[in-house]
Design a protein that fits this description.
Layout lengths: L18 E3 L5 H6 L7 E6 L4 H16 L5 E6 L4 H6 L7 E6 L2 E7 L4 H12 L4 H18 L2 H14 L4 H13 L3 H8 L10 H13 L5 H13 L4 H13 L3 H14 L3 H17 L4 H14 L2
Parallel strand pairs: 1-3, 2-3
Antiparallel strand pairs: 2-4, 4-5
Length: about 300
């Protein structure tokens, strides 16, 4: 007896496209269900959005390069406002990452391709997140010291995209806002700090900087203080008031110079008021800043002569 031929061969796997256009109606099939197998990125965009056109090609390149380890679903919110509304998308481009049926990460705006790559690497597990965050923080601190607030903000934002609770990144971002005279925004950043990180040096320092900036004088108020010091150089009370005003305006180097004049005359002047304020300025400038390093060397030379 001839056995019937078995034609039940295993069908070849059908290639699944890694980038597709999605919709509200197909969201479960396109995003939720596949995310149980592979991370799915959803790019909410619109044809009229300039930054969307900038982000789109970059995120597509990164997804293609991942070779199937992540998928991308692009959703036009003009035609499909439902899911974006449920996710409370307020501005576009907005990018969400889904895994096991749930959103696990997100960013908004047209990030540089390097940060998109970091976002994808984090999803696929191919990144040493701690190392990447550390590198971003080092670069951000360098930009901050050079006065490149845009570069610093970009790298601090990149670090926060990888570790939203990083006290160094939160403190750094608050410093960027302070440098732009936006005290309220700096305070808002500090509200995001976890309870366990409240005493972290980066947070304590920026909190001190905010306190110093709380009563910043106007230029018209600063000028009489400067004149008083120039007219009577030996008036340490006037010099201390001038140092306080300078520090409140963020002119920490100039404030330190005035305090060192006082300390050169009397280290314990006014119950060590100048010395205490100097230490607060070190705290506000940050433990790793060159200004603090120089200030500590100058103070040591006075203390150990």
């Amino acid at each position: 007896m001839v056995e019937p031929e078995n034609n039940s061969q295993t069908p070849q796997e059908v290639d699944v496209p890694v980038i597709i256009d999605g919709s509200d109606a197909s969201f479960v099939a396109d995003v939720v269900e596949p995310s149980h197998t592979v991370p799915v990125i959803v790019d909410f965009w619109a044809p009229w959005c300039g930054p969307c056109r900038q982000l789109g090609p970059a995120i597509e390149r990164v997804v293609h390069a991942a070779q199937g380890k992540v998928r991308l679903v692009k959703i036009n919110i003009d035609e499909n406002p439902g899911v974006s509304g449920q996710l409370k998308v307020r501005s576009i481009p907005a990018v969400y990452a889904f895994k096991d049926g749930q959103p696990i990460d997100a960013f908004s705006g047209a990030l540089p391709e390097s940060q998109i790559q970091a976002f994808v690497d984090k999803l696929t597990g191919e990144m040493d997140i701690g190392k990447e965050v550390k590198q971003l923080l080092i670069r951000a601190e360098q930009s901050l010291q050079l006065g490149d607030m845009g570069g610093a903000a970009q790298d601090y934002a990149g670090a926060l995209a990888l570790d939203a609770q990083s006290p160094e990144a939160l403190g750094g971002m608050a410093r960027v806002y302070l440098a732009n005279d936006d005290v309220e925004a700096a305070k808002g950043v500090l509200e995001m700090v976890a309870d366990d990180d409240q005493q972290h040096l980066a947070i304590v320092g920026v909190r001190s900087a905010i306190e110093l900036a709380a009563n910043a004088p106007t230029d018209d108020e600063l000028t009489p203080l400067q004149t008083a010091v120039a007219d009577t150089p030996t008036d340490m009370v006037a010099r201390f008031a001038y140092a306080q005003a300078l520090s409140a305006k963020g002119q920490m180097a100039a404030a330190m110079d005035e305090l060192f004049v006082i300390l050169a005359v009397d280290l314990n002047w006014n119950e060590q008021a100048a010395r205490i304020m100097l230490l607060k300025l070190f705290e506000a400038a940050g433990p790793t800043s060159e200004l603090t390093a120089q200030g500590r060397r100058r103070l040591s030379s006075l203390l150990f002569v």
